[in-house]
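Run folding on both entries below.
>entry_1
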Amino acid sequence: MSSLSLAVRDSNTMLRRNLLHARRYPSLTLNLLLTPIVLLLLFVYVFGDVMSAGMGGGGGADRSAYIAYVVPGILMMTIGGTVVGTAVSVSNDMTEGIIARFRTMAIHRGSVLIGHVVGSVLQCIASVVLVGAVAVAIGFRSTDATALEWLAALGLLALVALALTWIAVGMGMISPNAEAASNNALPLVVLPLISSAFVPVKAMPGWFQPIAEYQPFTPAIETLRGLLLGTEIGYNGWLAVAWCLALSALGYAWSKSTFNRDPK
């Protein structure tokens, strides 16, 4: 068997293993998925009129307009929350001895990481679809987006999921236990909260605007918002792709080097 076919076979086995774990122990995924849904309902039905009135430029309260604004940010937050479960899963593998067992077996070394990453990206997409379904149920509509823009939006979500998953894998590998892994991955949930997910950057205090603007989630959210609503994207698209590629490369290098030297 060639090296490539061996890698594909073993990666597929590890992917099935991780998906089975997610199916047999759904509580972590459900808990992480519940957070963006609760935030979506909270900001739409509790704060929606107030937020839309403050952002509407004198047009008054319009909850439907705020739903259109907030949903792209919630979708990105869904990805950030889902990959926390990946960090916990990787940490469990590293600390419970299964990785040491894998090292003694005739399997492709990279398949362990590939299985986690591909499984996490699939879970992120599934989570985004579920949260998106809730958003549609409460009134979100994307009537101005073309089929090409929908395809680009899906590609962007997958690229963000890949980038954050590699970072989460690295966080999980350096964590001594599952609790530490969850805490280490917390910035992936917090950063969307201080981005343009809920209010425009220009509406924030001047001293806080650079914090919200110069981080990976804001250009990704603005790009997704433009794709779904058919509005201008500007330079945010290039920034989002650049952030994703940089984070993917960083996470991959970090995870690979840690996995190769970790004796656990």
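>entry_2
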Amino acid sequence: MPLALLALAIGAFGIGTTEFVTSGLLPEIADDFGVSIPTAGYLTTGYALGVLIGAPILAILGSRVPRKAMLMGLMGLFVAGNAISAAAPVFSVMLAGRVVASFAHGAFFGIGAIVAAGLVAPEKKAAALSMLFSGLTVANVVGVPMGTMVGQSAGWRITFFLIAGLGVLAVLGIAALVPRQPRPERARIGGELAAFRNPQVLLAMAMTVLGFGGVFTMTTYFTPTMTEAAGFAASSVTWLLVLFGLGMVAGNLIGGRYADRALMPMLLTALAGLAIVLALLPLATHSKIATVIAVPLIGAMGFATVPPLQKRVLDQAAEAPTLASAANIGAFNLGNAIAAWLGGLVISAGFGYTAPNWVGAAMAGSALLLALLSMALERRTGARGGARGGRIVARQELAPERQYS
């Protein structure tokens, strides 16, 4: 794997830290601003919606900018957003800072995914994508627990100032390690939008929304679930987040490795496992041992879906990947926003802090059904193409061996 992937992972590490650290600091932030925990959960929803909106906009606006320069500029926006959050005098200003930082998120991963995939041979694309997203997962092993620990001991504002510092380090890493990228050809908006007429692209994005969104029904309310429902001390949240992060790292690497061999079986396995573990977590919280087992499993199953889903979109939108790639990153965060909102609804309705996990299980199960539909449609399309001897056959002859074996 090229060393340039390390630079992209540094940026992903900073983004992953800021995205997930609010889960560990939600009570402190809510108390400081005098708002309820469900209201503080809007920091997750707002961030996710910012990614959804910002990803396609910045991907199009930056279509004429060399990709290396664009990645550096996006990390500069990330630094500004986290600095605003750290210095926010009121909750609304912090929410605004989260949205500013989130605008960098989708375009960074969308453009970064294209750069990462272009640095390796076609049969190693998913593995390269998993290296990019490894920064996001390692953030949950190192960045998020450390940020939570610092925030609980020295104040959450210090955590966000340190995250802004991570963004500066990422800019320097990209400048030093990512090779110079040629200026992209003039983007044709019509060509980029044409990818969304492919039902397989839309199905993959719907799977992204529902599948990964299921993870966030647990992570958004992680701290109250572990302390109020499972009975862990507040000091235990840090190492529980480390366990979750280790699961994410393992799932991301496994998903990337096996998606290059058999993409759809890997995706089906991960989605089924995620739905099952999320459904069992409310029961597992009656036992601390069972909870400790379930937490990393959710991380592993959730992030095992990331490389295959992103590769699925890149493959299906190969002729115009920029907007589709960025939009799929936005789809991850649309799922996050929906999950955080639905989780807040069931908590506010009095069902308790474990109830959002049942919502997440239903979302992951729905994504599994869409994956099965996608497979059925692709096989039917391939069969029709074979009968006609048309162009589709040439494009899909390798698909069964690569994706379904």
